[in-house]
Specification:
Helix content is about 10%, strand content about 45%. It is mainly beta. Bound molecules: zinc ion. Zinc ion binds next to loops.
Length: about 140
């Protein structure tokens, strides 16, 4: 597929994150622990700059090529590890708070999940640090 995946240290939480570089020079960095993401790609012909800017993208030109960049601050993630070995990490949006945690934790105790491999994190914006709410992020 022409994709190179490297392990990097997350710029936000310092955890183990990933950087994918595509043949088309698009870059996607993401952290499954805090949810930080950085996307860089070429502006496509059908994309409107105003729409992209509303969506948080920064547009810039480098060597005559118009590129777009978007950084998403991590607000926490939830990892669903299935009993069949598969797993998925979903970043929270900024509206999820500590008050929601008991219901998420309860949900991870469903019999279809391998609860020991699941985790939940929240980014503490005041303290500027990661809080592991449930489980263990270093497997
Ligand atoms: Zn991170």
């Amino acid at each position: 597929m022409g994709t190179l995946t490297e392990e990097i240290n997350c710029l936000q939480c310092g955890g183990k994150a990933f950087k994918e570089t595509y043949k088309t020079n698009e870059i996607y960095e993401y952290c499954p622990i805090c949810g930080y993401a950085k996307e860089v790609s070429r502006l496509k012909k059908n994309e409107k700059i105003e729409d992209l800017e509303l969506d948080g993208w920064v547009i810039y030109k480098i060597e005559g090529i118009t590129q777009k960049l978007r950084i998403t601050q991590g607000t926490g993630t939830i990892k669903f590890a299935m009993k069949n070995g598969r797993s998925q990490v979903l970043p929270f949006n900024g509206n999820v708070t500590k008050e929601h945690m008991p219901q998420y934790i309860k949900y991870l105790h469903n019999s279809k999940f391998d609860t020991n491999r699941c985790y939940i994190t929240l980014w503490d914006r005041k303290e500027n640090r990661l809080e592991v709410v449930f489980g263990n992020t270093s497997d």
